[in-house]
Amino acid sequence: MKNNNGYYGQWGGAFIPEVLYETFQELKQAYTSVRNDESFWQEYVELMATYSCRPTPLTHAENLSRHFNGARIFIKREDLNHTGAHKANNVMGQGLLVKKMGKKRVIAETGAGQHGVATATMAAKFGFECTIYMGEEDVMRQRPNVFWMEKLGAKVVSVTSGSKTLKDAINEAFRDWVTRMDDTHYVLGTVCGPHPFPEMVAWFQSIIGLEARQQILERFGADPARVYACVGGGSNAMGIFQGFLERENVELVGVEAGGKGLASGQHAARLATNDASPGVAQGYKTMFLQNDDGQMLDTHSVAAGLDYVGVSPILTDLWEKGRVRFAGATDDEVMAALDLTMKKEGIIPALESAHAFVQAFKEAGELNRDQAVIINMSGRGDKDIFTIAHAFNDPSWQQFIIEKGAEYATR
Amino acid sequence: MQLVDDIGIRAEKDKDILLMTHIVLGYPSFAVNREVISQMVENGVDLIEMQIPFSEPMADGPMIVKANQDAIDNNVTVADCLEFAAEITVRHDIPFLFMTYYNIIFKYGEEKFLRRAQELKIKGLIVPDISPEEGKAFFALAEKYQIAVIMIFAPTSTAERMKELASYGNGFIYCVARKGVTGRATSFDEEFNSYLERCRRSTRRPLAVGFGISSKKDVDYLTGKADIAVIGTRTIKLVDAEGAAAVGPFIRGLRE
Ligand SMILES: Cc1ncc(COP(=O)(O)O)c(C=O)c1O
């Protein structure tokens, strides 16, 4: 991604305490050297092909396409990446970098737990010590991922400050890093935070877009009309968008968490509403959901990975320049899209990813059969079994939980 | 009078080391802040940094994080903090500084904030998340309003970096005593001494040392090495546990 000292237009930068200055100098140097080394990218692609499942397939969703009787719908299957989401792309890339830097410990924040699981996995494979920071609210709603992180050997710290969600986990990870920067690398999970993180994470995630562009040309013979991706911090969106940024005929659509409705005040839609304003927090400048004093607001989304006050400075710049359009999907719409996708295609998107499906479904009928759209399915929904079962009010699942609870209670 | 001059005059009053204390505005309440500040000033504190709460205090430890959060939960606004400062700087004849994170200033408007701070007789500003790389224009603007931006040195700063930092800002240098966030103990060892020597060689500005300073023993250790000892989390804890009245005797005890 082109940028000027970490700035994308007026967004980005590096607002870090002095104690991390040298650490960032070192990181920038290490990153620049691998960025200019073609063999590093080859090593990365090789790792993702043999340890993970890259290239991930591009699936033609024939039943959904027929159902909406409009554009041909293709789904980019990041759910089939090892650990079940696009997060592994960034994590394995940073893991290779950590090896080069000679650090022995990694830390990360996580919302949905997918970035945490990916980091714990990478740490296990590369032999690093690992601590994951996760908001208390997210620990509750993404419990299966907490279990796997711990089983993979990571320490999971439940963060109880602030809104107890993703932004607070990021603060806590920084507090760890300012204490132990000598042996520790902070594997930031999205295209946010201080420079060079947005650029570096976007680079590793660009593998999605590189593959998707080639795959759609092979399968469909032309560019898609539109590409949809959900936007939390923005890493899966930037990943796939980079394959099409230069193709001006391709419309790029970012879908944010509409929560209980864009007008409800209970959402995490920074660019799809007028509720956000420019600010500087978590080490970078972007549009934040904040009050007039600059205090961050509580956000809401059924999807922990989208429940965040800020958004990538790269996306904010692309939004400002009119290159990326933003929309919001509500919690209820997400459940409906999830249900339909499972029934029609036998595919279970993560709650985050289902946001992108919602918007694609709303618009598919506007297009015709000679046009294609790609939905970036950033991850699989297995992690969300508790939330989805709860939303569907599933009686047999509830009975199972009651019985399991009783079994443990008597021990 | 600018902050450097204040410090110069205070240092001449045969004090071996100056004391700066820290309070979080609106925590637990402005009424308690008022009483704590009186206790501090009456017992010889030389400078006070007043933290305007922010929802994302990244450089702070659990105690100050909680204080920030509680203040915001109690609807303490930036306007309330400025109003309180107006009252305090008139009542007490010592230099007061604001400490806050950059977003508070950015949202208020840099120039508007500095102008207001000058009107309020605030002498300096400590902003942990803005560096020369991001803050050059802001630092220059602060000079215009005679607000001393306090530059921060860290144990990880090289001598070269320190010299660069010291070419910005004014007043004194805040030397962070150790890695990490506020609130944890600091061990004063050989490594610390050589760090402090590096600080001294890099600037002619007075040196304040903060993070983990909590006792007379710590202050004694710093005497002769630093110009200002900064007491942060310790008094916040003390007020929580024993109330504002405990602050006076504690402060007096630090230099007795
Ligand atoms: C499956 C999945 N999709 C999307 C996201 C949102 O992150 P980003 O916007 O960086 O892709 C997450 C974050 O946790 C996630 O787990």
Quick description:
The complex is a heterodimer of chains A (411) and B (256). Chain A has 411 residues and is an alpha/beta fold. Chain A is built from 15 helices and 14 strands.
List keywords for this structure.
heterodimer; A: about 400 residues; alpha/beta; Rossmann fold; 2 domains; 6-stranded mixed beta sheet; 4-stranded parallel beta sheet; 14 strands; B: about 260 residues; TIM Barrel; 9-stranded parallel beta sheet; 12 helices; 9 strands; about 15% strand; binds pyridoxal-5'-phosphate
Can you give a write-up of this model?
The complex is a heterodimer of chains A (411) and B (256). With 411 residues, chain A is an alpha/beta fold. Chain A folds into two domains: 15-49 and 86-197, Rossmann fold (3-Layer(aba) Sandwich), CATH 3.40.50.1100; 55-84 and 206-391, Rossmann fold (3-Layer(aba) Sandwich), CATH 3.40.50.1100. Chain A has helices at residues 21-35, 38-50, 62-68, 87-101, 114-126, 136-141, 143-151, 166-179, 197-220, 235-241, 313-320, 331-345, 351-364, 385-391, 395-409, and strands at 7-8, 11-12, 58-60, 72-77, 105-110, 129-135, 155-159, 184-186, 226-230, 251-259, 277-281, 284-288, 324-330, 372-377. In chain A, the strands form four sheets. Chain A has a six-stranded mixed beta sheet, with helices on both faces. Chain A has a four-stranded parallel beta sheet with strand order 7-6-5-8, with helices on both faces. A two-stranded antiparallel sheet of chain A has the order 1-2. In chain A, strand 9, helix 10 (235-241) and strand 10 (251-259) form a beta-alpha-beta unit. The model of chain A has no long low-confidence stretch (mean pLDDT 97). Chain B contains twelve helices and nine strands. The model of chain B has no long low-confidence stretch (mean pLDDT 96). In chain B, helix 8 crosses helix 9. Chain B is an alpha/beta fold and 256 residues long. In chain B, helix 2 (30-42) links the parallel strand 1 (18-24) and strand 2. Chain B has helices spanning 3-12, 30-42, 62-73, 78-91, 102-108, 110-119, 132-144, 159-166, 190-202, 216-222, 233-242, 247-255; strands at 18-24, 47-51, 96-99, 124-126, 148-149, 151-153, 173-176, 207-210, 228-231. Chain B has a single domain (14-253), classed as Aldolase class I (TIM Barrel, Alpha-Beta Barrel). A nine-stranded parallel beta sheet of chain B has the order 5-4-3-2-1-9-8-7-6. Bound molecules: pyridoxal-5'-phosphate.
